Amino acid sequence: MGQDRTDLESRQGKALEIHQRLCQAYGCPIAYFHDLDPLSELISSLLSHRTRNQDSGRAFKALREHYPDWEALRDAPTAEVQHHIRGVTWPEQKAPRIQAILRAITDRHGVLALDFLESLSVQEARSWLEAIPGIGPKTSAAVLSFSQLRRAALPVDSHHHRVAQRTGLIPSSMNVGPSHSALAALLPADWDAQAVYDHHEVLMLHGQRCCTFRDPACGRCVILDLCPTGLARISGSRSPDPSVLEPVPDNPLHRRP
Ligand code: SF4
What we know:
Layout: H1 2-26, H2 38-48, H3 53-66, H4 70-75, H5 78-84, H6 91-109, H7 122-130, H8 137-146, H9 158-167, H10 176-184, H11 193-209, H12 228-234
Helix pairs in contact: 1-11, 2-3, 2-8, 5-6, 7-8, 9-11
The site of iron/sulfur cluster (SF4) has 14 residues, from helix 9 and helix 12.
């Protein structure tokens, strides 16, 4: 029990140090990249899963242009929706899934809107969303953090996840899903939405620009001394590298212009 607490406190301290150094490197606060209402952010997030940013952005724009409101998208022929989002990966799965999620929201809430989430706690809002099949922790956190709700929820994308594994913030065997709660538990409870957003953003940026999947630039990494993977690589050690997991395509959460 005491060992567990010591380990948690150690990882909390490391997370804070990593945050501070990466914020220095990448310039916090980071500007929000979206300003969508929560329902639109949800649709955008669902489209973007394992899809290049420009393709999911184009599909979202096509839906906006073709349907006067999201009720019309919900009630449209699925084949038609699939046609409009044909540029994303797996449009044949995403079209019916998005419509099923929109119907589920309507059934549970009475109307097709998510603005009411603002009155719930972050945990309540995430639980409400994740009770709908097809919405996982990454999507629920994205809706709360990236939308106009601007709540303190931590999404974890593939870059963020890789840096967290390599630095030992989470075990190398931990998948993205459970990493959401594990990584959120390392952050100070009193951090506001911007600080939590910054944390996600700087780890994501570090994964994109320095700690890349195939060739991490440990020699110029500002958190090298905190990272067992980097230290092992620099010293030439053959110790197992937790980065050697299956490659993950482009980050599905970030749709920067
Ligand atoms: S030291 Fe290397 S492995 Fe560790 S975070 Fe930096 S770039 Fe990634």
